[in-house]
Amino acid sequence: MDPKTPYTVVVADDEDELREAVCTMIPWKELGFCLVGSASNGLDALQLVEEHGPDLLLTDIRMPFISGTELARQVREVRPMTNIAFLSGYDDFEYAQQAIAYNVISYMLKPLTVRGLKEELRAIRKKIDAQFATFRQDLPPGGVPDARAAAAAALVLDDCTDLDGSGQAEEFARQCGLLRDGNDSPCCTVMVSALLNENGSMDTPASFAASVDRLIAKYLRGVSFSVPGKVVSMLLGSPPELGEYLYILADEIPQMANRVLGQRCRVGVSRITGSLNALHDAYREAMEALRQSDGTEGGAQFIGDLEPSVKGGELLCKRALEALDQHYMDASLSLVSLSEMLDVSPNHLSACIKKYAGESFINTLIRKRMKAARALLSTSELKVREIAGRCGYTDQHYFSYCFKKYCGESPNSMRRRLSGERTGDGA
């Protein structure tokens, strides 16, 4: 990416005057940014992030429907490389702690002057510049290989069957600093990342291992090393940590490679194992996942998504839509929970839904809920609040907003219109 290329920005704030002032009075181009969209609530902001994949989301921390902190969490799931800057009128340390948890790049207190916001945007620009420069930088030539990387390479690339049951692998890992102490027994997985050249062949410089390690450090313990054409990473963590962060990391690496290096990147991920002795088999799984991924584009492929055949393509999308038919009324339904039901990674499920349903998971879910809501409005005497609850909404105002956005009129307006049509008053 050309260092002079402006960073894209989405602005989200429910205060119309403030949002319009920020959008129109800030000299975005002068500061090195390009405004690509604005939203008055968290739902619209999330959809803009999915559509544009911005470098920066500037958002109020308290908004209708989806709070700023919940928005940050959901943005991290769909676009983990997007930086988030919070605006808040509440000097509340708890909010600041939540901001830190989601790798928020800036936390600004209202009221803000145009001058103050411009200064903060300049600081944010420098931070993003530094992130991208660090991701691009090469390792010093002739450096001594890191002992941890060398140890990981030995465990991953060698078939350690001679160590089975002896505990030698764990002791070796502790001596090399991969494990903390005798009580440290994390689960492990292997991830293989490869940059693709114009011909679609793997062409990954050794320096990319350091870039991958910097991203790993945001979420998990791990160490990477380079082999011809690719980078291999040994990742460690508790089952909850790996369950929450592994798919986010596997998305962020290709996103960063595409945005910063202008290159496609493919990632293959093995199953999770509880034994260091199984790392070589995990490496073979990650390589198989990499080989089975779509060679024409970047992205992540988990070995668990390849077997059996019902986990792939159009059939998986069909199963997902059937599951949505059964569970759309569950307010806690998410891409992650749906992927757990179908035993696939969120990455794979999201890609299949976009490819075969033609839109994102969240839009697919909302449209399903709106279809059910229209049916209830036309066939029942339930109150709007009750219909909202039956369609997966705990907030009636959120439901009404979504309904009007997707159906073109409010729930009450539609009910009056349908009632008039039935009685002939609407003729």
Description:
Helix 3 (42-52) packs parallel to helix 4 (68-78), helix 6 packs across helix 10 (239-261) and helix 12 crosses helix 13. This protein is of the alpha/beta class. The protein is globular, with a radius of gyration of 24 Å. It folds into four domains: 7-136, Response regulator (Rossmann fold), CATH 3.40.50.2300; 147-305, 2-Layer Sandwich (Alpha-Beta Plaits); 309-358, Arc Repressor Mutant, subunit A, CATH 1.10.10; 364-423, Homeodomain-like (Arc Repressor Mutant, subunit A, Orthogonal Bundle), CATH 1.10.10.60. Strand 4, helix 5 and strand 5 (106-109) form a beta-alpha-beta unit. The strands form two sheets. Strands 2-1-3-4-5 form a five-stranded parallel beta sheet, sandwiched between helices. The protein has a five-stranded mixed beta sheet with strand order 7-8-6-9-10, with helices on both faces. The chain has helices at residues 16-25, 28-31, 42-52, 68-78, 93-101, 114-136, 147-157, 168-175, 208-216, 239-261, 279-292, 313-327, 335-342, 346-357, 361-379, 384-390, 396-407, 411-423, and strands at residues 7-12, 33-39, 56-60, 83-88, 106-109, 187-195, 221-227, 230-237, 265-269, 299-302. The N and C termini lie far apart (59 Å).
Briefly say what this structure is.
This protein is an alpha/beta fold and 427 residues long. Helix content is 51%, strand content 14%.
